[in-house]
Amino acid sequence: MAKKTKSLHKFLNRVDHFIADIELIDVLAIASADGALSTDVGAHLFTAVDRGRHPTLARRKNSDHNRRLAVRHLKTSLCSGFIKDLYEDFSEYMQAILEAAARNGVNPNRLIGSHKINMEANELLAAGGWDNVVHLVARSIFRKLEDERNTKSLIQSMDAKLGLEIDMSILDAALPYFELRHLLVHHDGIADADFCQRFPTFSATVGSKISVEFVMTSSARNAIIALAKHFDSKVVQNQLVSDAEYH
Q1: Residue 1 lies in a domain
Q2: Any bridge partners for residue 5, and if so which?
Q3: What does residue 28 show for φ and ψ, rounded to 5 degrees?
Q4: Distance between CA 110 and CA 204 in Å, rounded?
């Protein structure tokens, strides 16, 4: 079994839980389509709906069409949420690695590079120990990288600071899904010209909403997990973190 960090283990576990949620809604969609969750003569969309507890669902007319709409909306919401969480969780993973590497004594000049930070003396004194100071510094560096608002640049900067020399083709394969998260958060998933031009194989149309469904989440998961595992393998190979950081 390949050696991995605790940070990667945590990331993979979170992804697994979200994927289980998406698989569950897919199971429920299949069950609903087969009539397992409702009857044609029932008062509500689904047999278990209680008017007092589920007033919004209770107001909807009992029909196959309305059931499909309700299930589809939930499925799309979960899939969109998963794309957003993938970005957040991968960012959390990188920040944890940055902090672990700093704690383990990675070259501070390379770590800081052009991203100079200033901290007040009282902030450092209030940190209450070296590990907490390292946490503050690592968090500040990562925040500076995030402030540049360029996901590819952020990961490339992490690569340079840690001296990993990651395979850019693996990053490029994951990048459309990171950028899709930006569209989902800021533009309701509607593709703009920049996204369509940068990722032509995505087959998005300018001004149209990108369909985020079961197959899309599987592709996103595979691409971003591949990047995380590759990134982590380079961290392990270069012995950037202490033995205590391994799972």
Answers
A1: no
A2: 246
A3: -65, -35
A4: 39
**The predicted structure's pLDDT at residue 115:** 62
- Yes or no: say if 27 and 75 are a contact pair by the CB < 8 Å rule: no
**What separation in angstroms does the CA of 93 have from each of 8, 100, 127, 143?**
7, 11, 22, 14
Percent pLDDT > 70 in the chain is 93
The CA R_g of the chain, rounded to the nearest whole Å, is 22
- Is 225 inside any structural domain? yes
- Other CB atoms within a 10 A radius of the CB of residue 87 amount to 21
Per-residue pLDDT reduced to its tens digit, 141-185: 778 777 878 889 899 988 988 999 999 999 999 999 999 999 999
If 0-12 CB within 10 Å is exposed, 13-18 middle and 19+ buried, where does residue 76 land? middle
- Look at residue 92 and tell me if it is in a domain: yes
Full residue range of the structural domain in which residue 21 is found? 6-245
Cβ atoms within 10 Å, residue 86 = 26
Check if the beta carbon of residue 195 is closer than 8 Å to that of residue 147.
no
Give pLDDT tens digits for 103-137: 888 777 776 666 666 666 677 666 676 777 777 77
| Inside any domain, residue 178 | yes
Number of domains making up the chain: 1
